[in-house]
Structure formats: structure tokens, C-alpha cells
Amino acid sequence: MPETAQRELTFAQAIREALAEEMWRDPRVCIFGEDVAEAGTPFKVLSGLVEEFGAERVLDTPISEQGFTGMGVGAAMTGLRPVVDIMFGDFLTLTMDQLVNQAAKVHYMSGGTWKVPMVLRTTLGATRRSAAQHSQSLHAWLCHVPGLKVAMPSTPYDAKGLLKTAIRDDNPVIFFEDKMMYKQKGRVPAEDYTIPFGVADVKREGEDITLVATSSMVDVALGAAKLLEGIGVSAEVIDPRTMWPLDEKTLVESAKKTSRAIVIDEGYGRYGVTGEVASVIAEGAFFNLEAPVKRMGAMHVPIPFSPPLEDVTVPTEQTVFEAARKLCGKA
Amino acid sequence: MKTAEEAIKTEAAVSPELGIRLYRQMVRIRLFEEQVNELYMRALMPGLAHLYIGEEAIAVGLCEALKKTDYITSTHRGHGHCLAKGAEPDRMFAELLGKEAGYCRGKGGSMHIADPATGNLGANAIVCGSAGIATGAALTAKRLKQDNVSVCFFGEGALGQGVLYEVMNLATLFKLPVIYVCENNFYTEYTHYTETTAGDILTRGTAFGVHSESVDGQDVRAVYAAANRLVSRARRGEGPAFLVANTYRYTGHHVGDINREYYRSKQEEQEWKTKRDPIKNMGEWLVSQKITDAAALKKIEDEVRQEMKAAVEFAIAAPYPSVEEVDQDVYA
After folding, report:
1. ipTM higher than 0.85?
2. What is the spatial distance between Cα B85 and Cα B117, in angstroms, rounded to a whole number?
3. CATH no. of A8-187
4. Assuming Cys at both sites, which of A30, A208, A213, A237 could form a disulfide with A204, CB separation 3.0 to 4.6 Å?
């Protein structure tokens, strides 16, 4: 095995490496957003890119999310491949017309003549003590809209491979990064690789229950799986990696095998990602299921500031473990 | 706010050939729109139709100053912009009727005509919805050194949308070759613009360091002259511009808006139609300059009428897309 195959990077470094490699590969790729250049974003994900590629390709913008997202759509239609940076996923509210009415519909409305090869990178995730307007996980909103693709990496390896695929895709892709994962380390090959959209990854094989988890909830599910092992329950953990396109087949096959499933996502449960995935499993694996498919998401409250309050709003290893134990009849 | 009467009048150096072309292009838009009205009244056209009649000088004056590779974005009242930028009436009518032969294979309709071949990034049914797109196209032109400019058409109703001011700010910061063209037809749907627009219109541009001018939107030569000036400075890398053109929407907000007296008088409509008509006035100018005569102008009108009639017939006869088309083109 080559030495680089064992190299470890943080999640943030993996994102940065994917961007740098794609910018070297394709001069049309550019980045814009608030504090993306010298500051390298508040999370320091983009540090050094402006020095490497210049201020023409790494553009600091004013605080005008709608304006520069719209600019991204037009730039993408006419020959650039912009990667738009929206610092906090909560600010997606400000970009919605550009994403939903413009980016998502240009290709269809124009009868397939104009394309929008744009990536919008943004964050999700609570427990950073950032309160109600900097902690939401709003990815389900975008999954709802035909014309958009939605990627949610859960490891540094997936982050690099999925981001490269996103940049090479001719459609608008919304790329969600959990801001609590930027410092997490993992194996990332130095060489060029991509991960296809619509292909789920089995993060852990198991026999008794399927835990479908997204983004940072994958680690939560893996932790729960370890706890479950202690009581003799073998859990399979699956990460869809892209919420659209969605690898329905892998999810259904796993649920058929294990006969039980929990879907865990940090967005709100109601009308959310967990509802969609649970429905796919319920329809596809109905005759093999021993229990109703369970959903776990953020509590239906604005994310509170106070730490003890915030911590109970999101699924944890312990709550997932408890739910799985109950579902498996292990009281 | 400068009124049309006070607007900067610039006599353009218009050659006889160009003068005739400007006239013909305006006639094409007007007769296209008259056909749209008729199609609608005969219940042959589904959906909505927002006519550009009365405003022809703006689209023609601007687009005649552009190259084919320059970009435009248009609005729900966009037929004039699309035609002026080079779209063919037959495929436009086909789109308006939802036919496969249309510019968007019937998937866009009247409010979404787009055409890469003529640099038309698309008409947009969200008021001010294309301001970001036009600005982004200018960013591409600058980054890839393409020598293209981008023209963003919108009505005065768009002045109420914040995104316009966001992109004006961006365009000045990045010195982008984009021209924001405000067609002030005085009515934001059914409401006079003075009831919806505080302060001065032109200074909305100057506040962001955008070179701003106003022009009489009924005078195609003046619009052409202003367009040439603004396009040239954009191509020279001197940055964005804002052009306010006062004009008048002869018909309703859409073709179904027939009884309009609750928001404007018939007398006001009549005055614009008789005294400020861009086609009539240009025709009179061409005759006064001995560039042409009334008979030749009549011939142009007859030719265009034939062109539009044939285009409509093409569209009516054209097939609808097959239903299998419905989920094609969602993704590239």
C-alpha cells in the first residue's frame, strides 16, 4: 500500500484539498463568498487558497447572500464553475429564490439548453453554542426541489471525493458540511479520486438493525452500534452520502436483511429527510420488517443557546442506542 | 426622478440603413404582440401574456448596440427583448403555445424564453429574478476576457427588490461589464410607481457608484445612442451602468387586464399612443430626413405582418411535445 493511502487529513483539509485540486485541474473553477480569501472563512477551511490561486479566483464578497448566489448562477450558465460559499446553512433562507426559482429550474425551463454547473457549499449542525440562527440543518428544504442535488459527507474521505464530483457535475449541487466535523481526522488519499452521487456507503455491516445516518449522525450511529454490540445487537450503519440522488436500493436491501431500521438526521424530523428515507424503506421492505421504521431528528424547537438545553435537541449515541434497543425488543 | 421629458436627449448618428432596421425591428415586436393578443383572445394560447406594446424602442435600441455573443436577461414582459436579441418569431410562437418546436421545447412558455444561440439567458417570471444571473454573466465575461457585456432588463417594479442593490454593489466592486436597464412604464402591475417607489430612481445607481443615465424610452435613436455609449464603456472595462428609460405600457398588465380606469385614465393612454408612440415617431423622422417615404414604411409593415402570420401558422400546426418529455431535462 502506498504511503499516501494511510495519510490522515482533517475534514476541513480534505475539503480544501478537493477545491485546490479541482482549481488546478480546471481554470474555470472559482470560489466566492464572505471572507473566503485572506480569512479563509471563519472555519479556516479555505486557508491559503487565495495565495495559491489569486484574488481573481477566490473572491471576497459583501454580505449579500442572494446577490452573490445569483451571480454564481449566471457565472455557471456562461462558462465558469463557481463554488459559492454560504457561511452558515441558516443563511440559505436568503438565497432561496436564486436556488429554487433560478438555479434549479434553468435547465428544465430552457428545454435543456442552459446548464448551471454550480456548487453551493454550506454548513449545518447544532451543539456549537451558536443559538437559533447559526445552528440549523435545513438540507431537507433543498432535497424537496427538483433540479437540485444534495450531498452530505460524513468523513474526510467522502468529503474530498464527493466535492470533486460536485464540482464536475453540470447541475447545481448543494454541499452540506457539519461545522462540528471540520477538525475530525480521517484517511484521505493524496491522489485524485471521486465518489459517485447516488451511491450509499455501508459504514458498518450488521445483521439485526439498520441505522441510516447522514453527516455527523453517522458517527453518532457508529457509536450507538458499538453500544448495541455490548447487548448482543448487530447494527448495520449506512450513509446515503447524497440525499438526492438517493440510493434507495442499498437502503431497502439492508432493511430487508435486518428487518428493522432507524433513520437519523440532524434536520427537523417533521416533513424532513428522515420521513422521506423511512418511507422509502417502509415501501420497499414492508414485508420483511419486524417493526415500524423509526425516525430521529432535531427536536421541533428553535435551537436554544443554553448548553444543557441545546444538547437535548439532537440525537446522541445514547438516544440512538436506547431507540434501537427498544426496537429490537431488548428491554 | 427625471421625467422622460427631462431625460438626456442624444441624437444618435443613425445611418439610413440602421434607421430602417430600428424601425423594422420595432414593427416586428409590435405585430408579434398583436398576434399574441389575438391568439389569446381566440383562446389558442394557454397561460398568461404580458405585452410589450408601447415599449419597443427600449429593447430595440439596446439590442442593436449588442453583439450576438453579448448576454441579455429578460422579464415576464419579455417577448420584445427576445425578438430584438435575435430570436425567430416562429419558434417563439411555438413556445408560447407550448409546442415542441419552441425555444424551450414547450417547457418554458411566454415568461421563460431562453436561447443560448442569441445570448438570451432567459426571461424570468420572478420580478428582478435575473439581476444575479446577468451580473454573473458579466463576471464570466470579465474573468475569461471574452469582451462580452451583459444587459439586464427589468421594469420599475423591480426597484422594490433588494437583490438589485446587492448586485449593483457587487458589479461596482468587481467592475463588471453589466448594464441594468430599468424600463419605467409607470405601472407596477396595477399601481402607479409613485405609490411604490420612494425617492429618486436614478440615484439608486449612483449610490453604488454605478454610472447612471436616463433616456427617453420612446425615442429609439436616443436609446440606441445611450446603449452604444454604455456598452462601449462596459467593453472598455469601465464597469457597470444603470439606464432608466421612461416608457408606457399601452395595454394592461396582462391581456386579461381590460378595464383599467380604476388605476389610469383612457385620456392618459391616448396621449402616449398619439403623441409618444416610438414607431410612429421614428417613421415620421425617417420620412422627414428623406431616408424613406410613407409607402416604403407601409411595405415594411406588410412584410412583417406576413412574417408574423406565417410564424403563427407554423406554431399552430406544430405538434405538442410527447408526454414522455415531462421528466426530461430536470437534470443535465
Report:
1. yes
2. 10
3. 3.40.50.970
4. A237
Instruction: Tell me, yes or no, whether B122 lies in a domain.
Output: yes
Average pLDDT over residues A238-259: 98
> In chain A, which ranges are E strands?
8-10, 29-33, 58-60, 81-86, 119-124, 149-151, 173-178, 185-187, 201-204, 209-213, 235-239, 242-244, 261-268, 294-298
- Contact between chains at B140 and A114 (C-beta distance less than 8 A): no
User: Confidence band (pLDDT; 50, 70, 90) for A6?
Assistant: confident
Q: CATH 3.40.50.970 in chain A, residues?
A: 8-187
Look at the domain A201-327 and name its fold: Rossmann fold (3.40.50)
**Closest to A101 in 3D by CA, of B112, B114, B82:** B112
What are B232-262's pLDDT values in tens digits?
Answer: 999 999 999 999 999 999 999 999 899 999 9
Residues from chain A contacting residue B130 (CB–CB below 8 Å): 102
- The stretch B7-36 carries a mean pLDDT of 87
Residue B326 placed within a domain: no
Cβ contacts of A66 on chain B, cutoff 8 Å? 132, 162-163, 166
Ranges in chain A annotated CATH 3.40.50.920: 201-327
**Please, which residues have CB within 8 angstroms of residue A204's CB and are 6 or more apart in sequence?**
A222, A225, A235, A236, A237
With CA atoms as reference, the chain B residue closest to A170 would be B332
User: What dihedral angle (degrees, nearest 10) is formed by the CA atoms of B154, B160, B164, B165?
Assistant: 140
Sheet holding A119-124, edge to edge: A58-60, A29-33, A81-86, A119-124, A173-178, A149-151, A242-244
Side chain identity at residue A152, one-letter code: M
Q: Which residues of B fall within a CB distance of 8 Å from A107? A: 329-332
To which residue does cell 438526492 refer?
A244
Size of interface A-B (CB pairs under 8 A): 151
At residue A286, the 3 state secondary structure works out as helix
Min distance B282 CA to chain A CA atoms (Å): 34
Is B6 a residue whose pLDDT tops 80? no
Cell of B90: 416562429
The tally of domains found in chain B comes to 1
Yes or no, beta carbons of A77 and B133 under 8 Å apart? yes
Work out the minimum CA distance from B168 to partner chain A, whole angstroms: 9
Contact B139 A80 (CB under 8 A): yes
Residue B323, in any domain of the structure:
no
Range of the domain at B117: 4-317
Predicted local confidence at residue B241, as pLDDT: 98
Structure-block grid coordinates of residue B258 = 381590460
Q: Would you call B170 and A71 a contact, using CB atoms and an 8 Å cutoff?
A: yes
> B101 and B89 in contact (C-beta within 8 Å)?
no
Q: Is A134 a catalytic residue?
A: yes
The CATH number assigned to the domain holding B186 equals: 3.40.50.970
Chain B nearest C-alpha distance from A64 (Å): 6
Task: From the candidates A134, A139, A144, A300, give the one annotated as an active-site residue.
Answer: A134
What would the pLDDT profile of A138-166 be if each residue is shown by its tens digit?
Answer: 999 999 999 999 999 999 999 999 999 99
Percentage, residues of chain B above pLDDT 70: 96
Is residue B322 assigned to a domain?
no
For residue A203, give how far its alpha carbon lies from the nearest alpha carbon of chain B (Å). 29
Closest to B122 (Cβ–Cβ): which among A62, A109, A115? A109
Judging contacts by C-beta atoms under 8 Å, the chain B residues touching residue A97 are: 126, 129, 163
Chain B contacts of A170, Cβ < 8 Å?
332
Report the pLDDT value the prediction gives residue A5, as an integer from 0 to 100: 63
